[in-house]
Design goal:
By secondary structure, this protein is an alpha/beta fold. The chain is built from eight helices and nine strands. Helix 4 links the parallel strand 4 and strand 5. The structure holds S-adenosylmethionine.
Length: 238
């Protein structure tokens, strides 16, 4: 039976489990205002059919996607530091998207666009094959309880989907502060033969300079959490 935690995957026809709980949270006036005023400029509505990214950004440039951008601080920092790149963000949490839009407007940014939907749906329906130079997934919900592990975003079919959307030579960068999830990611990636671990098999990476400390990470650091970065290159199309 379908419930709020599951949906029918239109490609497979099977029930799929969501990696998030729909929580509207409290939207601040600023976030609401930003959603109303700036969605037209920076937001991309979910629709059927691949989008033309050169048309969306008005130029050809390296394209980087962040999945689960939270309140958008890391995305804004990366996009400001690397104006030569275009950034796409996906986040289901509307107040977070509102916060991002507010920052994009305040900074007068032109190299960021955002989707407010499930990353799996956006990727399948809208992101062209081999169009991304990098995908970043920083601190996906860890779902620590064993009975919830099936909700984790990082699973074999999702990695396969990302592999299709990345260019050859593109980067997949994940980070987590949950040890069990870090090893789960490593195990999933071992079976993803189109990807090569840049740190060598079974090794974690150092945080590279381009990855800002995220909000979620900073909270974890205050609690003494360790962080694991995993960085892969897409080596071929399988
Ligand atoms: C633990 S938070 C981390 C946020 C941010 N990356 C950070 O480090 O501060 C994970 C985020 O992923 C989002 N998320 C979870 N599943 C998602 C999905 N399938 N598509 C898009 N966003 C998702 C959640 O709404 C949440 O904001």
């Amino acid at each position: 039976m379908l419930n709020k935690n599951s949906f029918i995957d239109e490609h497979t026809g099977y029930r799929a489990i969501r990696s998030f709980v729909r929580r509207e949270g409290r939207m601040t006036k600023g976030q609401q205002h930003a959603l109303e005023r700036h969605w037209q400029q920076f937001g991309l509505d979910t629709q059927q059919g691949y989008i033309d990214l050169d048309l969306v950004f008005g130029r050809a440039a390296p394209r980087i996607l962040e999945i689960g951008l939270g309140m958008g601080d890391a995305l804004v920092e990366m996009a400001l530091t690397h104006p030569q790149n275009d950034y796409l963000g996906i986040e289901v949490y509307r107040p977070g998207v509102g916060s991002l839009l507010k920052k994009l407007d305040e900074q007068g940014m032109t190299n960021v666009r955002v989707f407010c939907d499930d990353a799996r749906v956006v990727l399948k329906q809208m992101i062209p094959e081999a169009s991304l130079d990098a995908v970043y997934i920083f601190f996906p919900d860890p779902w620590p309880k064993k009975r919830h592990h099936k909700r984790r975003l990082i699973q074999t079919p999702f990695i396969k989907l990302l592999g299709n959307k990345l260019k050859n030579g593109g980067t997949l960068h994940m980070a987590t502060d949950w040890e069990d999830y870090a090893f789960h990611m490593m195990a999933v990636m071992k079976h993803a033969l189109e990807f090569v671990n840049t740190a060598g098999q079974n090794n974690f990476s150092q945080r590279p300079d381009y990855r800002p400390l995220t909000k979620f990470e900073q909270r974890g650091r205050r609690l003494g959490h360790q962080v694991w970065d995993l960085i892969y290159t897409k080596a071929c199309q399988l």
